[in-house]
Amino acid sequence: MVASESRSDRLCSVHEPTGAAGEIAGHLHPKAPVPTRGRSIERGVLRPTGERAVMPAFGAYTGGLSIRDPAFAKIFRAPA
User: Fold this and answer.
1) For the chain, what is the domain count?
2) Which of 8, 11, 61, 70 has the largest CB neighbor count within 10 A?
3) CA distance 1 to 37
4) Average pLDDT over residues 21-40
5) Over 70: is that where the pLDDT of 60 sits?
6) In a 10 Å sphere around its CB, with 0-12 CB exposed, 13-18 middle and 19+ buried, how is residue 13 labelled?
7) What pTM did the predictor assign?
């Protein structure tokens, strides 16, 4: 069975983030530059706040979106 969302008392896991409190979302899969040995590589990052989180990609073939992308600003109501 596949569900578009799953809810418990305070948490809701969804594919596309809406910015709702208690939400754990995917779809955007944030990534950020990580400095290492004099250079920078991009890796998936967890983007949490006190109210919601957007999960990074876990698969090798799943892309990611820069944490600085405007899409995150509208979900988290502040510049990413």
Assistant:
1) 1
2) 11
3) 45
4) 88
5) yes
6) middle
7) 0.69
